[in-house]
């Protein structure tokens, strides 16, 4: 997406149309007691209405506007992001069908003493969400068990569900196959492992503090048992493979493809699946990512149209009024993605909207894009784990059959509170900084420039 010198606040109107339609529909449905109110209107439809408004408001010919839309939809980062979504969906679906999630849950709960169940559920949720990349999937898998353990063990139900949501957001923020990680790293043009390292310096201390607090304050009044849970170590291997290999820096396409193959083998051996059933399961994973796939493309196109008209430059111009250096620039990025998530109640959408603006701010204030990706992912997950109308909180509260309302869970989101505090501290005390600096001329870490220049030289020699 090319830069231009236009500055126009009016260019943001199509974005506002998208957000207002999405947000107002959710509010109205919520007031009418519709379940999962903020997820009844498909986000791509709201984005499509925003695109229509851009065509009506912006100057120029229809062909020029259409070219700008297609340029944004076909941006290389958008296409890569979408392909990764498909592979991540296939891996998650196949691994789940092979019994991986159930085995992870069973393994964890079988070894946790009953008096540590609240902290244990938090810990298991952390592992499952890191392995699967899905906070919603983690809450869905663990929710019924968490409610049952809290009820039978005399544990505060809201506290138990608060720990479950917190652990789920821990992995959503860190997982290398999470859609938030994919969106954050692709929009900022950095590697997942680098963003993971920066995130870990904030998330790990927050997780440890939360775990200790849950050990102290989350003890049950009576003893509960989880001995009936079973697990199969073989079913967990694909998750371990994906996590370890991704952190080694292997190309994400190879990582996910390897994970799909391993999960497929486990599925074929353990569940008696045939190859045709396996391909259908993979296809189910692909189609499960259709909404976020389409939304990413449409938002990419809309972002490019808004950018061409000077909308992003206008936001940056406003941020410049208080962002004078790297620290205030980082605070601006954190505020931007936080407000976006509060508006749309979807952390991935918030990152997709904020990513292009954050990237421009990186160049403006010399902010390391790896740090920018970390901030985008972290603060979007913090607020996604707060908003009572978000999918994660609604699903968790839904398991109580009305005993606990979504708003009642907010005081027990200890992990999100602690992560927010530590993340803000990290802006003013930069303990997450990478060892090698980012070279903005080549848009990559200095440690990679030598290889980059050599590749350019080899290419030049091959051509001439």
Automatic annotation (TrEMBL):
Domain spans labelled Na+/H+ antiporter NhaC-like C-terminal: 11-218, 224-428
Alphabetical list of InterPro entries matching this protein: Na/H_Antiport_NhaC-like_C, NhaC_Na-H+_Antiporter
Membrane topology according to the record: Multi-pass membrane protein
TM spans (from-to): 12-31, 37-58, 78-98, 104-130, 142-165, 202-218, 239-269, 289-306, 375-400, 412-431
Places the protein is found: Cell membrane
GO CC term, one of those recorded: plasma membrane
Sample GO molecular function, one term: antiporter activity
Name of a matching Pfam family: Na_H_antiporter
UniProtKB keywords: Antiport, Cell membrane, Membrane, Transmembrane, Transmembrane helix, Transport
UniProt similarity note: Belongs to the NhaC Na(+)/H(+) (TC 2.A.35) antiporter family.
PANTHER family: MALATE-2H(+)/NA(+)-LACTATE ANTIPORTER, NA+_H+ ANTIPORTER
Annotated protein name in UniProt: Na+/H+ antiporter NhaC family protein
């Amino acid at each position: 997406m090319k830069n231009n010198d236009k500055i126009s606040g009016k260019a943001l109107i199509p974005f506002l149309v998208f957000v207002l339609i999405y947000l107002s529909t959710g509010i109205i449905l919520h007031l009418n007691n519709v379940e999962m109110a903020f997820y009844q209107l498909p986000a791509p439809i709201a984005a499509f209405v925003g695109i229509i408004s851009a065509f009506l408001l912006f100057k120029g010919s229809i062909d020029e506007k259409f070219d700008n839309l297609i340029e944004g939809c076909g941006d290389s980062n958008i296409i890569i992001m979408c392909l990764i979504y498909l592979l991540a969906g296939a891996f998650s679906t196949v691994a789940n069908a092979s019994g991986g999630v159930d085995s992870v849950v069973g393994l964890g709960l079988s070894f946790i003493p009953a008096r540590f169940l609240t902290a244990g559920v938090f810990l298991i949720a952390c592992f499952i969400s890191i392995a699967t990349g899905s906070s919603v999937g983690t809450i869905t898998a663990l929710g019924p068990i968490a409610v049952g353990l809290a009820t039978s063990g005399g544990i505060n139900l809201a506290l138990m569900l608060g720990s479950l949501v917190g652990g789920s957001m821990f992995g959503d923020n860190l997982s290398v196959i999470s859609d938030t990680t994919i969106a954050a790293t692709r929009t900022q043009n950095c590697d997942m492992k680098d963003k993971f390292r920066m995130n870990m310096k904030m998330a790990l201390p927050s997780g440890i503090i939360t775990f200790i607090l849950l050990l102290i304050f989350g003890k049950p009044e009576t003893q509960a048992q989880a001995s009936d849970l079973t697990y199969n170590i073989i079913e967990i291997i694909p998750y371990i493979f994906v996590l370890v290999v991704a952190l080694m820096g292997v190309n994400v396409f190879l990582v996910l493809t390897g994970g799909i193959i391993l999960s497929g083998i486990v599925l074929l051996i353990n569940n008696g699946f045939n190859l045709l059933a396996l391909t259908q399961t993979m296809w189910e994973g692909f189609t499960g990512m259709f909404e976020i796939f389409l939304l990413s493309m449409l938002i990419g196109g809309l972002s490019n149209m808004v950018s061409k008209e000077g909308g992003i430059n206008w936001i940056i111009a406003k941020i410049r009024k208080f962002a004078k250096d790297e620290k205030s620039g980082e605070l601006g990025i954190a505020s931007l993605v936080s407000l976006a998530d509060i508006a749309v109640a979807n952390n991935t959408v918030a990152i997709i909207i904020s990513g292009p603006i954050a990237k421009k701010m990186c160049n403006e204030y010399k902010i390391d894009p790896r740090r920018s990706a970390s901030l985008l992912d972290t603060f979007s997950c913090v607020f996604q784990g707060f908003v009572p109308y978000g999918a994660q909180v609604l699903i968790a509260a839904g398991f109580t059959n009305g005993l606990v309302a979504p708003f009642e869970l907010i005081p027990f989101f200890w992990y999100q509170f602690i992560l927010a505090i530590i993340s803000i501290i990290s802006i003013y005390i930069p303990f997450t900084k990478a060892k090698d600096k980012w070279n903005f001329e080549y848009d990559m870490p200095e440690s990679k420039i030598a290889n980059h220049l050599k590749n350019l030289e080899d290419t030049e020699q091959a051509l001439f």
